[in-house]
Amino acid sequence: MKRDIARRKHVELRSESGDQSNYQAHAKDSGVQSVDRAMLLIETLAEDDEGYRLTDLAIRTGLSRSTIHRLLITLERRRFVQFDRGQASWHIGAQSFAVGATFVRRRNFLTQVIPYLRKLRDQTRETVNLAVVDNGAMLVLTRLESREIMRSVTKVGGRVPMVASGLGKALLSTYTEEDVFAIIHREGMPRLTSRSIVRAGDLCKSLHDIRQRGYSVDYEEAQIGLRCVSAVIYDNCSEPLAAISVSGTASRVPDDRLPILGKLVQDVAIEITLALGGTIPVATGKNDESARNPRI
Length: 296
Known about the structure:
Residues 32-94 form the HTH iclR-type domain. Residues 1-30 are annotated as: Disordered. One of its GO terms (molecular function) is DNA-binding transcription factor activity. InterPro entries: GAF-like_dom_sf, HTH_MetabolicPath_Reg, Tscrpt_reg_IclR_C, Tscrpt_reg_IclR_N, WH-like_DNA-bd_sf, WH_DNA-bd_sf. Residues 95-278 form the IclR-ED domain. The chain is 49% helix and 17% strand. The chain is α+β, with helices and mostly antiparallel strands and 296 residues long. The chain starts with a helix and ends with a helix. The protein has 2 domains: 32-91, Arc Repressor Mutant, subunit A (Orthogonal Bundle), CATH 1.10.10; 107-274, 2-Layer Sandwich (Beta-Lactamase), CATH 3.30.450.40. The longest helix is centred in the first third of the chain and has 26 residues, at 20-45. The strands form 2 sheets. Strands 5-4-3-8-7-6 form a 6-stranded antiparallel β-sheet, sandwiched between helices. A two-stranded antiparallel ribbon has the order 1-2. α6 packs antiparallel against α10.
């Protein structure tokens, strides 16, 4: 009887799809859906170091508990997630770190950049960040923490909207207006704080100011009480490669300190660009010949 039921379902599925190729495509789509859901679980677990219980994952992802449990068991077997029996919670596993570390190693500039980030942290006594663009958001690759107490808006491996961060606005200032509007259309302009920029016209004005002075400022747009000053690193084709920033509390980064931090961040960004064999675009600040060619 079970065999007859299975055969009947098989025939019904084929008749709905029309032919054998469509039936195979349906099976393939089901497999893709499982992969997509597994990736969603990994991304969700990565949001919180404390991990999630099964019920919490169901609420956050919208998936059924049975589906989540089945996927987690498979991911656990591959060491992408791990289960804490004492807390009855799921966490990111060692294999997820191994895969992520490969991404960082592929961007081999990281090892070369660290000494410059350390220098910038020591000069400013504030936290220094390095981030790249990843699918319309800023992905933090590394951070050198200040010795001062500060709660960061995001962590290493975390993401923050381009339009709501100093790092993101610095990179957006190198984009064409058409590309900026495309990102706004796709990602939106989330109001993270009362000071977030939520109008395209206001963002364009801010990007114009950034191009004029050579660095961006996050005026507590991503997190109240936290300010950020950022500049762009360029590759050998004068294309934006990454961005670095100095972040600190508003009390330690008042208005009169912004130009000082801006110059330090911009200078270090130029040093990193040249160390990596990059070139500074003609339209960018400090674009004289000595900046583009360190041998002069």
